[in-house]
Each structure stands twice: as C-alpha cells, then as structure tokens.
Amino acid sequence: MRIVLLGAPGSGKGTQAALLQEQLDLPHVSTGVLLRTAVKNQTGLGLKAKAIMDRGELVPDDVMLKLIEERLGQPDAANGFILDGYPRNLSQAESLDALLERLGQPVDEAIQIDVKAEQVVARIAKRASEEGRSDDSEEVVCKRLRVYEEQTAPVVGYYAERGLLSRVLGEGAIDEVLQRIRGVLQMSKGS
Ligand code: AP5
Ligand code: MG
C-alpha cells in the first residue's frame, strides 16, 4: 500500500505516520526527517537545506526529487510506504507520479489531515518549548503556514481530481485521529 499523508505544519502527519508504520509494517518516509538528518550530519544536502528550512521555505524541487527517488528505491520501500511531507507543491506531485509510474507503484491513497490554524499554531508553540526545533519559532511558523496555503494546499485538489483523496479531522486525541485514518484505509480493529 502506498499512502501519501497531507496536511498543514503541525497537523500530525509525522505522529500518525509513525503509528501507521508499526501497524502496517511499511516504512515512514518523512522528507522533513531526511532533511533534518542531513543537516545534523552536515552533508552537502544538509548544508544546502539548513538556511532554507530555517526560513520556512521549500528546498528546491530537483533536490527533493533526487532525495525521494533515492529513498523510495531502497528495498524496504518495495512493498509500499507512508509518505509524510512530500509532495509539497504541484510540480512535486507530478514528479512523484512519474517516478512511481516508472517503479510500477502508483499512489493508492492520499489522506488530508484537517486541523484549524489556531490549533496547529498552539501545537507547534508547545513543541517549540519542549524540543526547540529550529524552524518552530513564531515567525518561521507563520511563514511555513503561508507556504503551505500557497504551494501545498493545491496538492489536495490534485489527488481529489484523481479520485485518490480522503479527508480526516485531525483534531481530538492522537488515537481518535488514528482510528479515523484506519477507517479510511479500512483496517479492522485487531490488525
Ligand atoms: P516537515 O518536517 O515536513 O515539517 P511540516 O510539514 O512543517 O510539519 P511538522 O513536522 O511540523 O508537522 P506534522 O504534520 O508532522 O505534525 P506532528 O506529527 O509533528 O518539513 C520541515 C521543512 O523541511 C519544510 O519547512 C521545508 O523547508 C523542508 N521540506 C520538507 N519536505 C519538503 C519538500 N517535500 N519540499 C521542499 N522542502 C521540504 O505534530 C505536531 C505537534 O503536535 C507534535 O508536537 C505532536 O506531538 C503534536 N500532536 C500531534 N497530533 C496531536 C493531537 N491529535 N493532539 C495534540 N497534539 C498533537
Ligand atoms: Mg512532521
């Protein structure tokens, strides 16, 4: 099963993908995590991406395509994956389709996690005080939300047009949101 999770910064993509990874035994592929690891390890990619991420902007599409192509080509992704943070604009959505067509692995489900803006701002403010992620400052969060509205929100329509989109409410307890996603994926309670 090949799943794309969509949603604003702070909507819970990473949280839900980590839970689904265990339950579905599929790798959780987060471009944010891949980039933060590259930054931490000071690789060429990390050095290039850090300033862009700290401004809350998007890393260039060609760089991201190379990264995702490499990751999805690894053996653990052969039976499916849960994508979190990619695609993030229409050009990335088109590139992903072309890549997955080549691999013979089209997207099965795109799930949009809906959370109100006030709620995501509150969640990220809490995380900023607890974890200190470098792009979680108030100013950068505003920028990330603007970039999301302008560039990423149209990706929801892209999947809707292809009949692949479901929407779930991302508010309430983490487990409630997980059950809604499991409902969309038609997973039985026990599995
Ligand atoms: P990325 O790491 O993808 O960040 P993001 O999309 O801005 O989102 P977050 O990770 O902040 O939120 P999330 O939806 O994963 O929510 P989470 O589960 O953490 O990207 C970072 C940067 O990398 C980008 O700005 C860009 O620069 C670059 N980048 C990444 N991908 C790119 C791409 N494809 N192209 C170009 N550039 C790219 O939850 C948030 C918080 O809320 C957590 O503390 C969590 O514990 C809490 N929480 C979760 N669920 C609930 C709940 N139900 N109730 C209460 N709290 C909850
Ligand atoms: Mg995340």
Write the topology of this structure.
Blueprint: E1 2-6, H1 13-24, E2 28-30, H2 31-40, H3 44-55, H4 61-72, E3 81-84, H5 90-103, E4 109-114, H6 117-131, H7 138-161, E5 165-169, H8 174-184
Parallel strand pairs: 1-3, 1-4, 2-3, 4-5
Helix pairs in contact: 1-8, 2-3, 4-5, 6-7
Q: Give the overall shape.
A: globular
Q: Which radius of gyration do the C-alpha atoms yield?
A: 16 Å
Secondary structure tally, helices:
8
Number of strands: 5
Structural class: alpha/beta
- Attached small molecules: BIS(adenosine)-5'-pentaphosphate, magnesium ion
Encode the helix/strand succession as letters: EHEHHHEHEHHEH
Question: What order do the strands of the largest sheet run in, or round the barrel if closed?
Answer: 2-3-1-4-5
Describe this structure in words.
The model has no long low-confidence stretch (mean pLDDT 96). Helix 6 packs across helix 7 (138-161). This protein has helices spanning 13-24, 31-40, 44-55, 61-72, 90-103, 117-131, 138-161, 174-184, and strands at residues 2-6, 28-30, 81-84, 109-114, 165-169. The chain is α/β, with parallel strands linked by helices. Strands 2-3-1-4-5 form a 5-stranded parallel β-sheet, with helices on both faces. The structure holds BIS(adenosine)-5'-pentaphosphate (AP5) and magnesium ion. The site of magnesium ion (MG) has 5 residues, from helix 1.
